[in-house]
Write a structure and sequence with these properties.
Length: 281
């Protein structure tokens, strides 16, 4: 054995381990019958070797084989420059490419006989096909799982949004009504001084709109911060994760919704008679 040349990647598994000069690797029957262990000295054809490794039982001719350095074997057998075989790994494991491999090898080494280990190649191909199929099934399962989770989140959001919307409208209307009631005397004085109902209405609605704008700004800052942290943790780009159209709609919709929610309480407070309000207060 001389060694191995990696054609594509160093991640390839070795076909045959190289044996350094002066060392020997023994099959099971050889080291078992001679009671040899790694580190022992052994003699082969008049040359001394150190046992490098002892293979476990494999149930084939490897059990009665010994491996040494190729150049040393050529010297011992008086066959310099000659080899008995070259092992090559064809990763595709497809019988259709054997003819192409045979032609290529014979063009480089005339007279060479190309033999394919069909059983090993078939087993390797089946293992790879099985691994590919397993990965494909796992990927499809994971995608379906993510789609299911996404659908559940969307359904949850769809059911939750109307409730949040109703609570928001009710809260704005309630706080607008409370604010108007607490300022009845001020509104009566303004009305008595000549302020029109439309101007008082705009003051009450403006308060609700300004509060909504402040809430929109704080909400957008919080959302953008959350998207940035989430995209950074997932290794994603920040900008593609942002839907500017939806953020703009939310920013505009909040003040409009606040104005509509506060309209009835503000309208009721603005239309109250100034004399009645002053008499009550």
């Amino acid at each position: 054995v001389r060694g191995e040349v990696y054609i594509q990647s160093e991640r390839q598994s070795m076909i045959q381990e190289a044996v350094p000069k002066g060392e020997i690797v023994l099959g099971y029957e050889l080291h078992h019958s001679l009671k040899l262990n790694p580190g022992d000295r052994v003699q082969l054809m008049g040359k001394d070797f150190t046992v490098k490794k002892c293979y476990p039982q494999r149930g084939n001719k490897d059990d009665i084989s010994a491996w040494i350095d190729l150049s040393l074997a050529q010297e011992m057998l008086a066959k310099p420059g000659q080899i008995n075989s070259i092992l090559a790994l064809e990763c595709g494991c497809s019988p259709s490419v054997l003819a192409h491999i045979r032609e290529e090898v014979e063009s480089i080494l005339p007279g060479t006989r190309v033999v394919e280990f069909a059983t090993k190649a078939l087993a390797r191909a089946e293992a790879r096909n099985q691994a590919t199929q397993t990965v494909k099934v796992a990927l499809e399962t994971e995608l379906k799982k993510r789609e299911s989770l996404q659908s559940e989140r969307e359904r949850f959001s769809a059911n939750l949004m109307p409730i949040i919307l109703i609570l928001g409208v009710a809260s704005v209307a309630f706080f607008t009504l409370q604010n108007a009631r607490s300022r009845y005397s001020e509104l009566g004085i303004l009305n008595a001084l000549g302020f029109k109902s439309s101007r008082i209405l705009s003051l009450l609605l403006g308060r609700a709109v300004l509060a909504a704008l402040l809430g929109s700004v704080l909400g957008l800052v919080g959302v953008l911060l959350f998207i940035y942290l989430w995209s950074h943790s997932q290794g994603l780009s920040f900008l593609p994760a942002i839907n500017l159209k939806e953020l703009f709609i939310c920013f505009i919709a909040a003040p409009i919704l606040a104005a509509l929610s506060a309209w009835l309480p503000a309208q009721s407070a603005a239309q109250r008679d100034a004399a009645e309000v002053l008499r009550e207060n």
